[in-house]
Write a structure and sequence with these properties.
disordered N terminus; mainly alpha; Ankyrin_rpt; ANK repeat; transmembrane; Serine Threonine Protein Phosphatase 5, Tetratricopeptide repeat; 0% strand; Ankyrin repeats (3 copies) domain-containing protein; repeat
């Protein structure tokens, strides 16, 4: 950076203070210019103002020195210089703040309008990449809420805050999972978004995904090492939720991920109880669903599920299988060592 210099500057009797001040201002200008897009945007105004100061200040200094030379007048000129320098720094701060505010609004507007071009332009001119609107939502929140995959990618590559919370306490990953945005959720997962964060209901992303039956998102979270034994406010784990909803594929993935198979729900039912009772939507009576259920029961047994434990209705898993006429499951449990009385 080249700062204009006047060759007519008269020697000062207190050069140390003046030089230190001017060098400090120049270094500050350089630092601000290099630090942020906002600094670069406002820098020409600061440079122009400082150039005028450099050109005018020596003439004032000569006039005072020629007419009434003396240290007192030189101190006055130096004091004036301090005030002028300070004024320019304040002006620069105000201009920077204004440009930053405009750029922040531009970020939100670009995302709301779905404009990739405007978003990239706003990112170049904005110092704050995580501005919040009236709902405390950042541009990333809005991009995720609107299902804007490309805009989400751009923001993630710009290294925005992946874990910022809006006024509801939701982060982008919580929004993506709750809306079933599988591709966006996977992108956030790969970008290392916090998978332990909880929403206002106390649910983590994996609890939300399982509750909504989002199999692909659930598997992505499991592969990313999300806690498969985390509990919601009702003390239910993802496996209990999946079994109670008849989501057998999700249940199988959780079992393979070493989820606790001995945990119980409010009725003292284990995942094995719930699996036998499971009825999938409109497909529970199909041969394919019955075969899948048998596979999940076998996986539970192999994972160490207790076969003869009773729920609060004094029913064991094999008794439930007997009562519901699921002969294949009944036979499997009997062969696995069940000693429950079926009479």
């Amino acid at each position: 950076m080249h700062v204009p210099h006047s060759p007519n500057r008269a020697p000062c009797r207190i050069p140390g203070l003046t030089c230190v001040l001017e060098r400090l201002l120049i270094k500050t200008m350089r630092a601000i210019h290099d630090m942020s897009p906002t600094g670069r945007a406002a820098f020409p105004l600061l440079l122009l103002s400082y150039s005028i100061y450099v050109l005018l200040c020596p003439s004032l200094y000569h006039r005072y020195r020629i007419k009434t030379p003396g240290i007192c007048h030189e101190i006055k000129i130096y004091t004036t210089g301090v005030m002028i320098n300070s004024m320019y720094i304040v002006i620069f701060g105000i201009v920077s703040a204004f440009i930053s505010a405009v750029s922040s609004n531009a970020l939100h507007d670009a995302v709301r309008n779905g404009s990739m071009f405007d978003l990239k332009k706003a990112l170049r001119n904005c110092a704050d990449l995580n501005p919040k609107d009236e709902n405390d939502q950042t541009p990333l929140h809005i991009a995720v809420s609107n299902g804007e995959m490309l805009l989400t990618n751009i923001l993630i590559e710009a290294r925005v805050d992946l874990n910022a919370k809006d006024k509801n306490g939701d982060t982008p990953i919580l929004i993506a999972v709750s809306k079933g945005e599988m591709l966006i959720a996977k992108k956030l997962i790969h970008a290392k978004a916090d998978l332990t964060i909880k929403d206002k209901n106390g649910d983590t992303p994996i609890l939300i995904a399982v509750n909504k039956g989002e199999m692909l998102i659930s598997k992505a979270l499991i592969e990313a090492k999300a806690d498969v034994n985390v509990k919601d406010k009702a003390d239910r784990t993802p496996l209990i939720i999946a079994m109670s909803k008849g989501e057998l594929l999700i249940s199988l993935a959780l079992i393979e991920a070493k989820a606790d198979v001995k945990v119980t729900d409010e009725n003292d039912r284990t995942p094995l109880h719930l699996c036998i009772l499971a009825q999938g939507p409109a497909r529970s009576n199909t041969q394919q669903y019955r075969e899948l259920k048998l596979k999940v029961v076998a996986a539970l047994v192999n994972a160490g599920a207790v076969i003869d434990t009773e729920d609060k209705f004094q029913k064991t898993p094999v008794q439930i299988a007997y009562d519901t006429k699921q002969k294949d499951i009944e036979d499997l449990l009997t062969k696995s060592g069940s000693t429950s009385n079926l009479k």
